Amino acid sequence: MAEAAAAAEEEPAWKRHILRQLRRRDRAEKARFLALVQAYHRLLEKSSVVDHFTAKLEAQSVDHPLGSPLFSSAQDTFSYTRKDVSDSGETAESMQRIHKGHVMQLQSVNGELAYKLYERNMLLRAKEATLEEQKGRLAWLSGRLSALESERRHLRAQVEGLSRAKAALKEEYKALLQRRRCQDGELRRAAEKGLKLLKGLLQGKADAAQQENERIERAKQARLSKELKKAAKTPVSVQVEPEKQDTGSRNLPEDENGEKLRSRPFRSASASSMTLTRYMDVFKGLFDFRLKRGNSISNVSVDRYSCLPLCAATCPPSQVSDVQEAHASEVNAIRFSPNTSLLATGGTDRLIRLWNVVGGRLESLETLEGANGSLTSIDFDPSGCHVLAATHNNAVQLWKIGECRFKEILTGHTDKVTAARFRSTRHQVVTGSRDRTVKEWDLGKGTCTRTIHVFSYCNDVVCGDTIIISGHHDQTIRFWDSREPRCTQVIPVEGTVTSLSLSLDQMHLLSCSRDNALKVVDLRMHNVRQVFRADGFKCGSDYTKAVFSPDNSYALVGSADGTLFLWSMETSKLEATLPGVHRSAVNAVAWSPSGTCVGSVERCRKVVLWR
């Protein structure tokens, strides 16, 4: 008992509570049926006794007379019955009937009690089954509780381990944070040092370029001076025709002595009458076109160049005139000079090739080197003397034709520059970049004068007299006024804008987009006037260039399969397709200012001249 009590004390409280509840319910159920069971047992005993004596009585009444010893013993046994019968005067038969009634009544009561007992037994079995089920569930819950307790202990150990790891990580994070702050300070100092070094490098390059230009200028001046000295030493003979007298036509005036004066013949000045200094001044004024950086530009007639329309009627291209292997890799840009037959191409090999178009052939003229990255765009200044190129190295570079080394570099973009254009003067430049900015530059000072945040990747830029138009990756064309800081107009299109081309009269804008369509925008109404589509035309990349013809009669673009597509502006119909020459996607096309020839470049290094 002591061991059972100790085991009971070791059991959990909830187990002891369940056992007490089960014992209490067992006692309550037994107390309800205990009296009924005892009464049932007594009735069974009485019924068996009555059956026994009734059988004996029947046998005695049939086989023995009333005075037999068996009957006398029965009378002794049931003396109270005989006494009642003798008192009431009833016979044995009536007593037998009474006993039979009692037996039947007892049998019916016995049957009812047996049925009730059966029901109680069934209920007891159901309760026992429920109890067994509850015991099984209790055992399962006990096992589950033990498993959960062990899992809880395991999880608590894991939590403690994670807490320790968290504390260690927190300490490590604090150390790393402190280290990061130190490295940020070092990075900031290194960036400042790098910026100083970059400025010094750029200044050194500028000084080197200036010294080279001055050396070339001094060499030119020395050569010119030598030639002028040689020319000054050469004698020049001047012949004067004799005077012809005409006495009949006019009367000559008289002098003080009354003599007729002869008209003095005109005598031209000899070349030797001009001094060497005068020659130097004249030729220096003729040959010195270089403007010093930092000087203000005040004479508009000197800096502004008017683009005279050289084309009266454009001839649409129909056949290949020449094919050249232009570059060592992909060719991205092509541009004609505005007033000469010069053609420039640029590609990923960081070179600008200059070609002279003579008799329908391309003659290699010059190669401009020194680009810091792959070239994405090329443009000539209005005079045709300078070439501007945008590069993947986040910079814009300027070359002067005739000088192999670049003359100027413009840095300030933080991503690759996709477009660079001259404005109406050769001292103003507009650039667009994938850093979501458009910048205006002053080449006279070499500085950025304005930065426009354009909200999306800029793929191309064109310039009017007072507006800047930019095409973007978010399928919009935006208009910016040079005199206002905000966007003045937004025109949505159905695809990423890859190129923009402005007509010479600045009344129409041609855009090419990745939805495989060209759209003509009316700049007076700021709406899309025409849409050009064709079966087979597919825009090959995000920098595919389309152009207007010089007289604004046609729109030209190259497809991804190497075919050129030509639409008529008047009828809005496809005028011609030029397949079979390019073997890869055409990146850009250009139309000569005279309207007689077209140039196209592709990804596989070729430049094609069409007539």
From TrEMBL:
Ranges where the Autophagy-related protein domain occurs: 17-213
Organism from which the protein derives: Pogona vitticeps (central bearded dragon)
The family this protein is said to belong to: Belongs to the WD repeat ATG16 family.
Annotated region described as Disordered, given as residue ranges: 227-267
SUPFAM superfamilies found in the cross-reference section: WD40 repeat-like (SSF50978)
Keyword Electron transport: no
Name of the gene encoding the protein in the UniProt record: ATG16L2
Pfam families membership: ATG16 (PF08614), WD40 (PF00400)
Record key words, sorted: Repeat, WD repeat
Name of protein: Protein Atg16l2 isoform X1
Stretches forming WD repeats: 324-357, 368-401, 410-451, 548-577
